Amino acid sequence: MTASDYKKVFKQLKVKPAKLEKYKKHNSPKKRSCGTGQNICKNCGKRRLGFNHKYGLDVCRQCLRDIAKKIGFKKYS
Question: In terms of pTM, does the model score above 0.90?
Answer without folding.
Answer: no
